[in-house]
Amino acid sequence: MHSWLAPTNQLGFLASALAGADITTRAIGVCVWIGAIAGVLVAAWLVWTIFVGRRDPLTGLGLVFAVMVVSGPVVQPWYVLWAALPLAASALSRRARTAVVATSATVAMLLSAASLVDVGDPGRADRQDQH
Questions:
Q1: What is the pLDDT of residues 4-17, one digit of tens each?
Q2: Are 32 and 60 in contact (CB under 8 A)?
Q3: Deepest in the core among 8, 29, 39, 40, taking most CB within 10 A?
Q4: Can you quote a single GO CC term (predicted)?
């Protein structure tokens, strides 16, 4: 069973649907690898910006966590807190704090609603019937 909560899995489901073939598991696998590589590259860049002094360390920590959650193969609703807490603590302006609060509330609500839906792996049922 593949989760709809992770953006990398969503891309795999989309690729499978667009291809019109039973490639869900393979498409998700490819998207997870692409997400992992992209996540490491973006996280390394963020760490570099912290190292050279262009980004506040607490903000950078929150952004690195956000990148890992978005590019990772699994997302649980509480993972959003890993990014939201350091970002909220580092938000100096009212506008930035409002953006962090609104984003985390929206994501938490969307993930909570999405976790109630069990779509399984559409391609998997077809393969089990053939055996």
A1: 778 999 999 999 88
A2: no
A3: 8
A4: membrane
Q: Is residue 130 part of a domain?
A: no
Q: Encoding tokens for residue 90?
A: 């580092």
User: Is residue 26 exposed (0-12), middle (13-18) or buried (19+ Cβ within 10 Å)?
Assistant: middle
DSSP per-residue letters across 10-46? HHHHHHHHHHTSS-HHHHHHHHHHHHHHHHHHHHHHH
Counting the structural domains of the chain, the total is: 1
pTM: 0.74
What would the pLDDT profile of 40-70 be if each residue is shown by its tens digit? 999 999 999 999 999 999 999 999 999 999 9
- Would you state the structure tokens that stand for residue 26, as one six-digit string? 């393979």
Q: What does the block give as tokens for 125?
A: 């049922």
Residue 50, in any domain of the structure? yes
